[in-house]
Amino acid sequence: MNENSLKKVNTASSSPDYTEIVQSASFQKLLKQKRNFILPLSLFFLAFYFTLPILTAYTTVLNKPAFASMTWAWVFAFAQFVMTWTLCILYTKRASKFDELVDTIKKEAAN
Amino acid sequence: MNVLAFSLFLAIVGLTLIITYAASKRTKTTSDFYTADGSLTGWQNGMAIAGDYMSAASFLGIAGMVALSGFDGFFYSIGFLVAYLVVLYIVAEPLRNLGKYTMADMIAARFNEKKVRGVAALNTITISIFYMIAQLVGAGALIHLLLGLDYVYSVLIVGVLMTVYVVFGGMTATSWVQIVKALLLMIGTFIISIIVFSKFDFSLAKMFSEMKTATPLGDSFLNPGNKFKNPLDMISLNLALVLGTAGLPHILIRFFTVKDAITARKSVIYATWIIGVFYIMTIFLGFGAAAFVGYDDIIKANAAGNMAAPLLAQVLGGDFLFAFVSAVAFATILAVVAGLVLSAASAFAHDFYSHILRKGAATEKEQVVAARWASIGVSILSIILALFAQNMNVAFLVALAFAVAASANLPIILLTIFWKHFNTSGAVTGMLVGLFSSLFLVAISPNVWAPEPGAAIFVGEPLITLTNPGIISIPLGFLAAFIGTLLSSKKADEKKFDEILVKANTGMGIEEPVKH
User: Whole-model pTM?
Assistant: First the structure.
């Protein structure tokens, strides 16, 4: 209830100065932390993802058996699943830190 | 006709209609209709995203492709899954923070001009219709095979049902149909996978070594290269798969059904786990079908391999499992087409009618009426197109939808969030070039032109050898957005970008769902 009435007050008053928020230290910190996490990991998963089709399209190195009859192509394919889940978990952990910063920014803007 | 299968079909239809009836009583406002009033939890929305995403092309198509071509079919599973990292890392949260009902809302939050909204809506409608024709053609063929009904009646049944869900139940009914369907699909797939695995004594090593002799492909069944021979084409397909999801309108509108960006993030994470487990199981479906149904019988039932999963169910579990899996496949198609109708109808009613024609002056009631009529219109159009498209290759329509989504939508979504100097001209040129270049490249491709009659739509030499346009059209979409921005004399509004930056990253100032 309290939270709702607070939001109403916020929207009723003139909109906040977004440029000021952008220039604030906590917002810059959020942008920087997000960039440092998302950019390198995105480049990594795209590179990892495309390595499989590129290797299978232009070479046969992945056709060698890895375990019993399972070839390296399958191992690489399963690794893509493991990578996706791992990056999901990593993001969940990191995002809770982003959320804390977002709360700080919102509080600063409300004052 | 299989009586058991028919009864299970009826049970599923009955269940979904009860859901729709319950939802219809709650669907009064535009927010109810488009977004279920933003009331879904992360878990519910994650299931609904999975239900929306694991389409007939995934369930029937990938199982068939793995069964017939071995490793190559699995590329689809990998691409469809890894795509969720793009959604999770880059698209989901800003989209929820900036958008309200449609993808165009998000772009219009920065560039509030009619032409931007209009072109974004055009993209949404084009992609949804392509995707929908593919699903309807698949549905027609499936019901024809299972129940012996004529193709025309099969398409009409699915078409009428999807219209009923959307028109009466809106996003609430559509979401719950997707959730129920996701559950049924996971249960069915899990049972089959366990039975298949047990036949190999729960040993991966044994499974892989027995697959070497189980198919006409022999050893090479386990190696890549049976289906995709052209390296560039194959990389192009993978590019469209991994980038397309983040531009698919029916997936994007699912992020407006939750209350905030944190819940949107949670729903992507749940969806990624569910979809990942499902796609791992496509190996068991595919291997099982290859080993226990056999190449010849799969081909005999459907040349594209679409019947591999239901046939496998029959071999393993008899008529009941066959009936169950067939009914689940039917529910899958219903859920996915309902989501597609909703995304196309939202674009039409919300973006074209409310914002462009009525300039935002339509009353709440008029908007809901418009959304319902738009759903009926979209349904009729797609049913008619599906009736003409009976003999078209459905896989190509789905791949085309992914390529258009990646070329026309994704560049604009990314640049809207991240590029300070991006402007209206850039957004419009990017979307139009992405859309038309991918359509044009497909129109001159081997999907449409083949030298021998019957292999494609027209007889003749294709002008390019690529079956998937992504590798050309995706960079073109980005390039056009850049060039359009640079050539425009109008400078980007930097104050507006600051506002977008704050809103996208913090969710400040987003509209709360209206409480009733």
Answer: 0.89
